[in-house]
Design a protein that fits this description.
Length: 467
């Protein structure tokens, strides 16, 4: 079980955050100078050097988005230029990529962050540059929303596996639908039928909460409250739920911890976004409270499951029931050991979850004096403190990654295993590095009492606030 440090604050973490940005800037410069994008997007490191890994190019946005975050944190215009130039040169085709569910990763991390900086007045972009970012976000949102499978009650955005497949990851990519909606965009389908992007966001989020998350209500014999299925399968002819599945976890009946983290953060961030919308928004159909209640239920369930199944330092192993975990003694009573010889940890899941805990705590604080509020806040800070220190923060200038001990796809064996070892360790991923940077920026904004960090850059609500 995660043991929270009750004394941590963003101010106490300030030296670690500052050190992180110092290391981060060096690594971005070195990687941009060396890496050849004709190889494909950088995905994971092998022996400390970033390499591609064919599946889909879902990490390109994290690559250039990291430079944008570096500018946001430090004000160094060189990084803004790296991020802006890379986005406009290399992400254009992905704006209208019809074959993936990852638009919120690639496009919001780049065009979305650049647009947010315009709205916040952080850059000197002219009107036409801002309109460029807005057009990209509108198109991306429409393409994402068009990857749709209808159910008798609602529906979902299809994963790249096909119309029968719903991935847990996709709840974090709903941000692009939110931005498209805020920019006034609608999806036009056959016969000029107008489809609300917010409507599809809500339906997808609710379907995810109802089918990817378990609540201990007896769905099957593995129905443990807070457990998450990475993928769920539907009969597309009838719309009926068929079974859980998993692409990157150990099995459909265990919890791949990055899926758990995606849902925790995805729900928390969408709760913040939905809370910012007017009560009488038509897409709520008069039930904003009910919708927020369902997302809150999923967020609380996954948060508690993460706390209960995590090692004491908050860094999880790659799957809560990975086959050789039984050989490790008292997992819940000890910090994760990235150098064990049985099962790898996944620091990238921890980076995602930490921000989820912090955002959920803030949302609950504003809506209820609930006992978990302080525990969730300190959980997020405890994980952040762990990741911003050895052995997780990469201080070796020759290593191109920022966050060590990230795992991509354990079942397929894509992760580098050092000579003489049985499991991967010591390597990084683009999404792990990006989300550690995003976590650091979130905490830095709070430490400096700056605008609260949201993807939609709502100027009216972006006032200084506690995490």
């Amino acid at each position: 079980m995660l043991r929270v440090n009750p004394l941590l604050t963003p101010a106490i973490l300030a030296p670690r955050i500052d050190r992180l940005w110092e290391l981060s800037g060096e690594k971005i410069r070195r990687l941009v100078a060396r890496y050849d994008l004709s190889q494909g997007a950088p995905v994971i490191t092998r022996q400390g050097r970033y390499a591609s890994q064919g599946w889909t190019e879902w990490t390109l946005g994290f690559y250039f988005g990291s430079a944008v975050l570096q500018f946001d944190a430090t004000g160094d215009a060189d990084f803004l230029e790296i991020g802006r130039d890379g986005t406009l040169r290399h992400l254009v085709n992905y704006v209208t990529h019809t074959g993936v569910h990852d638009h919120g990763f690639n496009i919001v991390s780049t065009y979305g962050n650049l647009w947010r900086l315009c709205v916040e007045g952080r850059t000197k972009a002219d009107l036409w540059e801002r309109r460029c970012y807005e057009t990209a976000l509108r198109c991306s949102a429409a393409v994402q929303a068009h990857r749709w499978t209808s159910l008798p009650q609602g529906g979902y955005i299809q994963s790249f596996n096909g119309p029968h497949s719903l991935f847990a990851d996709t709840i974090r990519t709903l941000r692009v639908l939110a931005l498209g909606h805020l920019l006034g965009h609608v999806l036009l389908e056959e016969d000029d039928r107008r489809v609300s992007l917010l409507e599809r966001l809500l339906q997808h989020a609710l379907t995810t909460c109802r089918y990817n998350v378990y609540y201990g209500e007896g769905r099957d014999i593995y129905d443990v409250e807070g457990r998450v299925a990475h993928e769920v399968i539907f009969n597309i002819r009838t719309g009926s739920f068929r079974c859980p599945s998993s692409q990157q976890g150990w099995s459909p009946w265990t919890t791949w911890t990055r899926a758990l983290a995606w849902i925790l953060l995805g729900c928390a961030e969408q709760l913040e976004f939905l809370d910012s919308l007017p009560e009488k928004t038509p897409e709520f159909h008069g039930s904003k409270e009910t919708i927020i209640g369902e997302l809150t239920k999923a967020a609380l369930a996954t948060a508690e499951y993460y706390l209960q199944t995590s090692p004491t330092n908050g860094v999880p192993y790659w799957d809560t029931h990975a086959p050789d975990l039984s050989r490790l003694s008292k997992i819940g009573d000890n910090p994760a050991d990235p150098f064990n010889d049985e099962e790898p940890v996944d620091s990238s899941a921890a980076a995602v979850a930490a921000q989820g805990f912090l955002r959920l705590a803030r949302f609950l604080e504003q809506h209820a004096s609930d006992p978990p509020v302080e525990r969730y806040r300190q959980a997020g800070l405890t994980i952040a403190a762990t990741l911003m220190d050895s052995p997780y923060l990469s201080e070796d200038p020759e290593h191109e990654g920022l966050l060590l001990h990230s795992v991509y796809h354990r079942p397929r064996g894509w992760d580098y295993i050092p000579a003489g070892w049985r499991i991967p360790c010591g390597e990084s991923s683009q999404w792990g590095d990006y989300h550690l940077r995003e976590l650091a920026l979130y905490l830095q904004r709070i430490r400096e009492e700056g605008p609260y960090l949201t993807f939609w850059a709502n100027q009216e609500s972006n006032h200084a606030a506690s995490p």
